[in-house]
Amino acid sequence: MAGAYPKLLGMSHDSNKAPRRHARFHSGLQAVRERSTRVRERLTPQHLHAPSLDWLNFLIADVRGGLGPYVVVFLVAEQGWTPTAAGLVSTVGGMLGLVAQVPIGAWLDRTRHKRGAMLWGLLGLSLGALTIALAPAFWPALLANAAMQVVSGVFEPAVAALTVGLCMREALTARMGRNAAWSRAGNMAAAILSGLIAWAFSPQAVFIQVPVIAGLTAIAALTIPHGKIDLRRARGLEPGDAQAPGPTSWTGLLRSRPLLVFAVCSFLYELADAPLLTLVGQKLGTEMPGAGLVLTSALIIAAQLGMLVASVLVGRRGDALGHRLLMAVGFALLPVQAVLTVLYGSLSWLVAVQAFGGFGTGLFAALTPIWLADATRGSGHYNLSQGVMAAMRALGATGSGLLSELLVESAGYTEAYLICGIIGAVATVLLWFGLPEPVAPREAAARA
After folding, report:
1. Does domain 50-235 match CATH 3.30.930.10?
2. Of 86, 81, 101, which is closest to residue 142 (Cα–Cα)?
3. pLDDT tens string 4-59
4. Which of 215, 294, 325, 375 reaches 20 to 30 Å from 117, CA-CA?
5. HEC string of 164-178?
């Protein structure tokens, strides 16, 4: 018995160690599970580093950017069309695209198939581009360009809706800023790639590349899992089940003072902003014959670089600095850009001024879908509001062409730049005093 006593003590000592080892094992297993969960969450599309959304934004900008600037140039310079006939094709397409913005937004609110809408849009772009390249007669080109302008209105609101449906509010600003940055990179890539293709092969090849890029874009869209998208949140409703409140009346948008102010500001901004690039390129083209298109491309790339920097800033600091403040800064840079344009003394100065102005435009463009998501939360009309704002911007850009040419003919380039600056200053004042922050970012995150 005495000899067995130490053994009993040892057994008791070992039995005390066993629960501790068991607890350490379960603690380590739980730590591994938590770490693997964090890794999986970082790789899922509802979080910031989603390669599907990155490439989707990049490729959509690429496939759209390969069309617009080249249609009229191709028809006039390569096919011998008169400027009047080419201008008619461009004008009809632009007006139909403008009119389609609001119905497209309303339809995107209702449909569950937002990825499918983009796929059909990519098919329409591809067929239209091939028609213009292979059958550049008047009626085929008119119908093809009109179809391309209409379906192009699907992409921006659809991508924004997918992003809102994938991201909780606390991640939305960073994700939208990232979307905008990849889109600007796609615009620059489109300008460079299209120029290289036209130079190395033929002008028709610029249009034939579109179906190829559209196919890559479709693959990127299909890699976004439909099951991860909160369809209620994607249209501006609070998350919930079938018994949760549905959308309000669309007439509520017309009674919303902040949305009406934002619509007017969007119109005024585009009315003033577009001529500060096109008129500069036009003036340089008259001063340096034969170099107008090349110089305009340099100005466009500079503006896109400025927009890229602004998009990164919005993604990283947008919530901390405040959306209203950053948008007001973006608007205020427009009259400054107009004055700097008047003071130019060299080509490098104008390129730098375009980058400066692009920064302001980038702030406005990157913040618009975020601000609308907050302003329309609970209404169920997020995509409709995007369509309305896109129509107002398109109306301003369309009107700017006529306004700028009338100003140049009646007063001159300097006066035209300054009047654009005055319009931009009016828009800035209206935005600052008429547009409150609809929902504080932290409050919105708590409600999401």
Report:
1. no
2. 86
3. 444 434 444 455 555 566 666 566 666 655 665 554 444 444 443 456 889 999 99
4. 375
5. HHHCCHHHHHHHHHH
